[in-house]
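Write out this protein's structure.
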Amino acid sequence: MKKFLILLTAAVVLYQCTEKDIEGDFAGKEYVRGRLFINDTLTQQSVGVPLAKKKVSLGYADSPDSLNFLFTTTTDEEGYFLFQNLRSDKIYRLYYEEKVGDVLYIGKDTVQVPSNQKPLFAEVALNKQSGMQFTVSDPTGGRIKGAKICVFLNASSYVAGACDASNFQLTTDDYGRASKLNISPGTYYILASFSAGTTTLTRKDTVVVSSRVEQRTLQLQPGTTKNGVTYLVLDSTGARLSGVSLCFFTSPVLFSRDTCEGSNFQLLSNNNGVATQQDIAQNKYYVYGYLKVGDIAFAGKDTLQVSSSMLSDTIILRRK
């Protein structure tokens, strides 16, 4: 009889420890029922869409361990998930993480049991991937749809003020937002603009990208109207030519010598075959393009009337 009482006491103590003290035990009577959504406010690919067949993890909210969880389940076809046998004296943490394509999404939230309709929103992770995100507005603060954002790695191309030499371009969505994720660390130069009729709004900025998504709000302001020219330089097959000297003359006599000597100013086409110059004196210009590759020379000619606006033109070089 004494032996039986000892065994009974030990069983009771073990049951009490299991019920209350052993972390990770699912011996409670409460539950969490929720639904996983994607809420992509950066790329606007999906907003408020349920995520089916995705893994959701559960842990204690006050646990310092953010890598290991008590339990993991999979959402059903409509994005619903369920955790049962939870303790009423604990607050829990829900967690979801997944990389979709090149974009990392994370959803995390705390929950008090019982909970029958707990939403968990997966959003673009800002701290575990590199990138930039812009919100563009007008001078009054209103969001601008269709604003163009030109991003440069080369500071000199950025100073020139034309998007042709930019590394990439973005366009804002209905909410005035635009983003680019998973880009190389570095210093990026930003030129944002929007034109409506005769009004042009612009804004410049600099963004240093490291290991997180950098966020910027760009409030565009009326810009000073500048004149100038942007030339696209091609060969006879239509291929873009870099390193071409474009020599501008106001004298037709000097221009006719087929050399750059005596020109008013010169431009050099970039890697995209583009040459740009702003703030040019209004005049008629004779343009001579020249490129030498080894012993082979290429040349082309054009005339241009510069007024008070920006002009775009094409010059074709042929073998001399």
